[in-house]
Amino acid sequence: MASHTPDALRREAERLLEVAGVSRAPVPLRDVISALNLSLVQSRREPFSSEAALAPLGEGFAIEVRGGGNERRRRFTIAHEIGHFVLHDGRPLYERGGRVNEASRRLEREADAFAAELLMPEHLVRQAALEEGADPHLLADRFEVSVQAMSIRLRRLGLAERQSELLPPSRDVF
C-alpha cells in the first residue's frame, strides 16, 4: 500500500468535509460518519486495549469506541479511525500484539495526520487564528480538540514559530 503525501491527506480530508457538508468548526463527526455510511458503536469487547477500532458490522463497518475518557481525545481517536477507513481501503485494522512494524507505524502516522486535517482544516484554522490569534487554548476550544493537538497543528502550519510560543504564560511571580 502506497504512502500518502501530506497534500494527498489534506485533499482527502477536504473532500470528505465537502461531501459531509461541513464548512465550520467544530467539525461534527456524526455528519462525517454518516457521509461515509459508517456506524459509531460502544465497544462490547473486553478487554478492548485501544480507545477505538474499525470493525465489520453487517454489510459495512463501524467505529467501535471504548466508553469514558476525555471527549476531545475521543474525537481525535474517532477521526483517526475515519482516516484508516478512508486511506487504507476501508479494511479494518485489527489489534495485534507484539512489535509493531514500520508499515504499521506509517499507517498510524497517516491516520493521525488525516485526523488533524479533518478536525482542524487548514483554511479554518488560519481563519480562526486571524480572528482570535494563534492561542492554542482558545483555538482548541473552538475546534473541540486538545490543546496539544492544536499546538502541534499551529506549529505545522507555521502559525506558531517556536515551541515556547505554545506554552501557557508563566504564573510565577519573581
For this entry, give a set of tags.
174 residues; mainly alpha; 7 helices; 49% helix; disordered C terminus
Give the beta-strand count.
Answer: 3
Global shape: globular
C-alpha end-to-end distance:
56 Å
Largest sheet: 3 strands, mixed
Order of the strands making up the biggest sheet? 1-3-2
Assign the CATH architecture of the domain at 6-93 and 101-119: Orthogonal Bundle
Given the structure, what is the number of helices? 7
SS-derived structural category: mainly alpha
Q: Whole-number radius of gyration?
A: 17 Å
SSE order, as H and E? Answer: HHEEEHHHHH
Quaternary assembly? single chain
- Give the overall average pLDDT: 83
Percent helix? 40-55%
Task: Determine the CATH topology of the domain at 6-93 and 101-119.
Answer: Arc Repressor Mutant, subunit A
CATH C-level class of the domain at 6-93 and 101-119 is Mainly Alpha
How much of the sequence lies in strands comes to 5-15%
Low-confidence stretches: 94-99, 163-167, 170-174
